Amino acid sequence: NQQNQQNPLTNMKGVPHFTKDGTMHEGESHKMPNGELHTGKSHSDSSQRLFHFKDLSKKAQKKAQVFIDEAKEKNKKDEGKSFTEAVESRMSDSY
């Protein structure tokens, strides 16, 4: 799905993932043998379990909503721009 490839709200199969406290995870992830998704390309002592928004506590959902709203705002700023222009804009916002 091309829309999911360009949307910062998505991660693995088009669904955003969050740590237990509601922080949006945008890095690499891996699936455990029990089916859980964890942070990091491969498992380590620092890997954290990842959750879908609906599976977070109410407190964590409030924090996650801030990340979602910020990502949606970035998408609005990029409407009408070419892919290259959108990337350049986001890169300049990072510095």
TrEMBL record:
Compositionally biased spans, kind Basic and acidic residues: 18-50
Compositionally skewed regions (Polar residues) per UniProt: 1-10
Region: Disordered, residue numbers: 1-50, 70-95
Protein name as annotated: Uncharacterized protein
